[in-house]
Design brief:
With about 525 residues, the chain is an all-alpha fold. Helix content is about 60%, strand content about 0%. It has 21 helices and no strands. The protein starts with about 25 loop residues before the first helix and ends in an 8-residue tail after the last helix.
Length: about 525
């Protein structure tokens, strides 16, 4: 069973009764051969040739543009292009609330608060990361277009309806191959796995994004640069992202047959997120499912989908969710015999080549088809803690949205400070949900940091344009001193709440069970 998209296969069950891999070279080779088999084996020459044109060439073209920009030290002209996704954020959350309401009314188990918050948190990490690296989506493309634009594609041609349709199709073709390589190459999978390690499937899953995926996805669209103008490329790139939001749902069963044949649908994409044996490495489509039909990766939804990757992460820690696969690749590399084989772990091995899972059999449960595993469901001890984390998350979402709206006006060192605060807050929230013993200390530190940040904003150094706008918006509504007092009261009450619930949690975990009445 091929396992590129989930990092394991049913063949791992052969190791369930084996001890950890011995250190002798001969046994290392045995483990190496099994890992190669788990990752899909050696690829045929026709497959390698196809991958060379659809993956290697775009990546090399990406290296060429980056080197050209660094050597030339000249940035291309970037026109003012609207941020389409930012404008759609209210629609995203409105749709999530509608789906959540439907699932509650119909008593459908589509949502868990911990999993939904985890998806939103990882999405917040990605958008803040894009403040610093969002340029990778446009600058290399614009640089390549300035130098190699094909003159026959004039404005009259590029503004026609057929050209727009072909551009949409061409960009989706690039997305298909980016997505396929993101499941079949170890480093790409490490950057993409974040979107798949949720064990639920709802509209919040669409927001569950990797911080690092944007570092390589743009390269697969560079072949379009000589032909397609930058504004059209950005528009269809965002349209592809927007389209894929609505297909992350279990509310819609099937679309009309003609629509199911040509377009990606909730049914097709549910298959893609499944860890069922027959669903692994299927349905890479962005908008058009026809590329999966052409290249043999299409699979219809035929049995109930079991969502997630093959091994449960067992945590809501946002940083572990973002980076766990990188550590697994390093572990695989350490145990791989031979320098060339170690290099190939990074070059062309798939996620099924994973020594971390082979060594840590206690963390890997591979069930037969049709048998679902128990989902990780870590929660705080008390319901009031859930309410607290939810409210704090909402406040942080509002703050993050404000910062993103003013990102072009913020100094870089201020943006770094805001990003650190947001990341630290998300780490604290996720550790509270995991019931880690140090979580109250983290949250207390975060609350103190909030106070320090507010005090700093009252200094001359802190009064940049954005901070002035923020303070003006607050001061006009509730007054400067009242705003400070309210913030101090929120911080103090939050600290008392965290301390109290932590003490109660410790007492309840150490309390002896009461004897049963005779």
């Amino acid at each position: 069973v091929s396992t590129q998209s989930t990092g394991a296969s049913l063949e791992f069950s052969a190791f369930s009764s084996m001890s950890p891999p011995p250190s002798s070279p001969s046994m290392e080779i045995v483990w190496y051969q099994q890992a190669v088999k788990n990752s899909g084996g050696e690829k045929s020459w026709p497959t390698l040739l196809l991958y060379f044109f659809t993956g290697v060439i775009p990546v090399l073209l990406g290296f060429y543009t980056v080197v050209g920009i660094l050597v030339g030290r000249e940035l291309p002209y970037i026109p003012d292009i609207p941020d389409y996704i930012a404008k759609a954020v209210p629609f995203f959350f409105f749709s999530i609330f509608c789906e959540l309401g439907y699932s509650k009314l119909r008593k459908k188990p589509f949502y868990r608060l911990n999993d939904g918050l985890s998806s939103v948190w990882t999405g917040m990490m990605q958008v803040m990361f894009s403040v610093f690296f969002g340029w990778m989506e446009t600058i290399p493309y614009a640089w390549l277009r300035e130098r190699y634009q094909i003159s026959m594609f004039s404005e009259d041609v590029t503004s026609s309806v057929w050209f727009w349709l072909l551009t949409w199709l061409g960009l989706d073709f690039g997305y298909y191959w980016f997505h396929r390589f993101a499941h079949e190459w170890n480093p790409f999978w490490a950057a993409h796995v974040v979107h798949h390690n949720s064990e639920e499937y709802n509209l919040t899953t669409a927001l569950r994004q990797s911080m690092l995926q944007g570092w390589f996805s743009w390269a697969f669209y560079l072949p379009l640069a000589p032909i397609v103008p930058l504004p059209q490329y950005v528009f269809f790139s965002k349209l592809n992202t927007f389209y894929q939001f609505w297909i992350h749902t279990r509310v819609i069963d099937r679309m009309p047959k003609w629509f199911e044949y040509f377009f990606n649908t909730p049914s097709h994409h549910r298959v893609h997120h499944g860890r069922n044996a027959k669903y692994i490495d299927k349905n890479y489509a962005g908008t058009f499912i026809i590329f999966d039909r052409i290249f043999g990766t299409f699979q219809a939804e035929e049995e109930e989908v079991d969502y997630g990757i093959t091994h449960s992460l067992g945590t809501w820690n946002v940083f572990y969710i973002q980076f766990h696969q990188w550590f697994e690749i390093i572990e695989s590399c350490k145990h791989t015999p031979g320098l060339w084989n170690k290099i190939r772990v990074w070059l062309d091995r798939g996620p099924g080549y994973n020594y971390f899972l082979l060594q840590k059999q206690g963390n890997l449960v591979v069930e037969p088809p049709g048998v679902k595993r128990e989902k990780y469901d870590g929660n705080p001890t008390f319901h009031s803690q859930k309410v607290y984390i939810l409210l704090q998350s909402v406040l942080l979402i509002v703050f993050t949205d404000f910062i993103l709206g003013k990102s072009k006006e913020i100094y870089q060192h201020h943006a770094l400070a805001y990003t650190f605060y947001i990341y630290f807050s998300l780490l604290s929230f996720s550790c509270l949900y995991d019931n880690r013993w140090f979580a109250p200390l983290l949250e207390t530190s975060r609350l103190i940091l909030t106070q320090i940040g507010w005090r700093w904003m009252n200094t001359e150094e802190g009064k940049s344009m954005v901070e002035k706008q923020l303070k003006k918006a607050i001061d006009e509504n509730i007054g400067e001193r009242r705003a400070e007092m309210i913030l101090m009261m929120i911080t103090l009450s939050s600290f008392i709440f965290i301390l109290f619930t932590h003490i109660r949690s410790r007492q309840s975990s150490t309390a002896l069970p009461k004897p049963k009445a005779e």
